[in-house]
Amino acid sequence: MTFPSYTSSCLDAAGRGRQFGARWRQAVHANLDGYLRLFEVSGAHDGRVRELGEQALDSTAAWAPELAEEIGGIAAGCGLEPWQVAVVNARTEILAALRHDGEGECSTAVVLGGGLPPRTTQTWDWHDHLRDAPLLWAYEPREGHQVRTFTEFGVLAKIGVNSAGLGAHFNILRHESDHAHPGVPVHVVARRILDEAATLEQATEIARSARTSASTVITVVTLEGARSLEICPDGVAVVEADTNGVLLHANHFLDGALSAGERLGTERPGTYARLEHLEERTGELGDPDATARARAMTSHGPVAPVCAHADPALPLDQRWETLAVISLDVAAAEMQVHQGRLCQVTDATWQTF
Length: 353
Description:
Elements: E1 5-7, H1 13-23, H2 25-41, H3 46-63, H4 65-78, H5 82-89, H6 91-97, E2 108-111, E3 119-127, E4 134-142, E5 145-152, E6 159-162, E7 167-172, H7 186-196, H8 200-208, E8 216-222, E9 225-232, E10 235-240, E11 246-249, H9 264-267, H10 270-280, H11 282-285, H12 290-297, E12 320-329, E13 334-339, E14 350-352
Keywords: Acyltransferase, Transferase
GO molecular function: acyltransferase activity
């Protein structure tokens, strides 16, 4: 099994959006419906969701006008209102506004050095009813600059790599400063980094220029190094790889100052156990073989499984599953993507994009 993939041919943001929306009309509608179900279970009525979506779209338009135009283009192409497409781009902000939490989430490992390009591995854990949300999307934000992203239908970007040799991993965080007045969606921040950054410093500057209302960590990787950008409304902290070239992240803040406002880890402490598991496997996580790295990352421990299996007995908003495993090749500007859980990875299940 593989994820659907799509290559845009339009350089104009609004036109690219219309082209995408027309091609993937049914899938964008289905993804929106899936999120509306999640928001409803989390306590939001339709009017509240629209209000939050419109605020997020306004914040996007002020910070990245072309990306707001692309959201509008997707909406026009698939027969939705712009605020509806903004909703799926701002799902992190809406869930933060609703104070939604969950047990599962993503784990990321980057290992540098050893005379090899960076070795990166990430799980993408999300609600199992949204397992059909992802796709692989290639596009050019400007002529000669290619971006490949693992994202969701209607979402501008998430995890990805660009032809300048920069890649980005993506993990959700929760912070006491998160609030209910949507700023720039963190997925839009990831998109601008992939569209514009060639260096770690450029990525950091982009992240720091955004006024956000929710938290996340974007781990940026180049041939020269890697760093995690811990983003929250209180600011952006930089976490560098350690002296051995290892950079690991789960779903809690590592920066000393921002960690004082940690919220997800205090409510869901399994994130700390997941990070400890990665720390115990750093040697194997530096293996040049992506399958070996996935096997090293795999854990079904009862406290904090890195490979998550959804429990059908739980409510919709508490069912989490590892839906994808992603490795970035920044030297080749490609990704290797596995659809499904970590424990299902084999050499034959990787999709190169």
